[in-house]
Amino acid sequence: MRIGIIIVCHNIENNINTDLFVKHLNKAKNIEFCFVNNASKDNTHQILKDIKEISKKNFSILDVKRYKSDNSAVRSGSRYMFSQFNLNHIGYVSTNFLNKKKYSICGLIKHIRTNQDYILEYNKQLKEDSVMKQTMFQSVFSITEYLEKSRTPY
């Protein structure tokens, strides 16, 4: 079962270890990544494009020209993912969360890759607990909440 992951990025140029990033992306199976560059003023967008060229894993990059809230950036990524891919589960995380917690984006990708089954179970449980049928945007779940509840280092 394929899962979509939206990662909202804003000025993370200095947090990206290109070699490690590519290594973890290439090992990811059944995961479709979408990086939403939220009006970064640094070189984040170019680094993501460079990584896309050298990576074996194809992933999407959306470039938002004017800064939006994380929720709006996630909506942009969600619309793209729903229109381009046939995915049963789409999760999101913002690099702002990573920066606050002093975690790395490479560690996040590795954690998502190695815990994909647990993340899917978490999302299935959320859907089962929901009383109402969810709309497209309501069905997009927070990887951040999963990470905080799992309490595993990443």
UniProtKB/TrEMBL annotation:
Pfam annotation, one family: Glycos_transf_2
Annotated ranges, domain Glycosyltransferase 2-like: 5-62
Keyword annotations: Transferase
GO MF entries: transferase activity
UniProt-recorded name of the protein: Glycosyltransferase
Organism annotation: Algibacter amylolyticus
